[in-house]
Amino acid sequence: xxxxxxxxxxxxxxxxxxxxxxxxxxxxxxxxxxxxxxxxxxxxxxxxxxxxxxxxxxxxxxxxxxxxxxxxxxxxxxxxxxxxxxxxxxxxxxxxxxxxxxxxxxxxxxxxxxxxxxxxxxxxxxxxxxxxxxxxxxxxxxxxxxxx
Length: 148
Description:
Blueprint: E1 2-8, H1 13-24, E2 29-34, E3 48-54, H2 66-75, E4 83-90, H3 100-111, E5 115-116, E6 121-124, H4 131-145
Parallel strand pairs: 1-2, 1-3, 3-4, 4-5, 4-6
């Protein structure tokens, strides 16, 4: 199964997490892509999508995810049949907006007909857990869901 790993980042952590997830999913044809360089029209609902999105400012999308999200809103593609998993990055210090970036993207994908599978991972940068460590463990669980 083809897997598209999309990341939206402000500081680069989401890209590092995307690369770690791709390392774990070696049994699949994995393509890691920056949301800034990925067109909504490129979404193939036959591919499984893993979305990694940080949260910026006061619960907003990072610069790297904004144009992709805007295109989802403007184009409103029918994403029925698309399955995706979400890995969010945030800081629990910001209680009301913790991991909101990932939630914004996931909510829009579901609204457009996509199905979210597995646990919505929410990394907390205030914790002692490194994002790539959590991502690797989470990716193993997600990979198990992809077995036909």
